[in-house]
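Team,

Forwarding the record for the chain on the shared tracking sheet. I've put the sequence and predicted structure together so nobody has to dig through attachments.
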Amino acid sequence: MIDTGDTWKLGVLFSETGPTAIIESLQQRGALLAIKEINAAGGVAGRALEPVLCDPGSDPQRYGLLAEKMISEDCVRVLIGCYMSSARKEVLPVVERRNVLFFYPTLYEGFEYSPNVIYGGACPNQNSVPLASYLLENYGNRFYFIGSDYIYPRESNRVMRNILRQGGGEVVGEVYVPFEAGPEEFARILRDVAEKAPDAIFCTTVGETTVQLYRAYHAAGHDGRRVPIASLTTNEAEIATVGAQVGVGHITAAPWFNTLDTPASRRFCANYQREFGPDIQVTSCAEAAYFQTHMFAAALDKVGSLDPDQLRECLLGASWDAPQGQVKIDPDNNHTYLHSRIARVDERGDFIVQREVIRPVKPDPYLVTPDLNDRRLRLRKAMPKARTS
């Protein structure tokens, strides 16, 4: 059955306010840029994509309530949104009960599957395993975990602890902080860090809490070039906020960085900043929202319907040339084959890729084979050089 109407509606559920807005506002812009490009090219079957925007204010319960509102009041049948796992968990029962397709463009802790979700961010075998391998090889085997106090950090740390054990790693400290944690809270934690003397910090804080941690780490006299904060979540926007002097030496594992010097990556960055301003940072989560929106439109063009079952059937196995390189939705688990890169912040505040996996990594959300020696996850020195302009 062909949907009738003047536009195709897409629910866009990212926070523009609250602690995680520093990240989610960029994800929203990634989706909106893709929508603008699609509409400028004639839309889908001659009809424009229409974003239906809602701001949950970084409150996890609001995501589920607003998802229900968009479905029941705005007649939305496809959603893209969420950053925190606690927010995704609120939306999940809504989309399953109402049979709505949900694109989730954010890295997460894994160990989940829903037929109603297309997972576009990295799962642990695509970021935690390569990061652990890199840190053990280059920094040592003693780690201190600092995370925000919610689902993702606790589960991510559980996974990372098991991965590190395989390589002889040891976790010498583990703490969780509330979203409103400030300098005093981090000063206390960093005194314990100094006493335990780890070789690296594994950080799973998010949003404004990350900014507070990095500033406190620098103020306490720690040097990221010697003992780095290594993260799966820290991105270009947060480093721009703390500044190059504070960020230098710290490490992030992600599928894409805005210094990646390929035609597709340069074009994406240029279009993003032309649309939203030259000072707006482009991040890996924004890139995921961008390519997932394009993949949704391509599937919609083929099936001519917003029916979730038809769209899912078309999407499984589909590929797209994303800014990070070619990606593909795995028909086995609804997750996405993604590129895996390790980058370190230089003296200018840019993420410079140090290592990368040679080809897209098949998602293994349940870590069936969490092997540090898996040849498919073998890191090589990065070939592309960072942009100089």
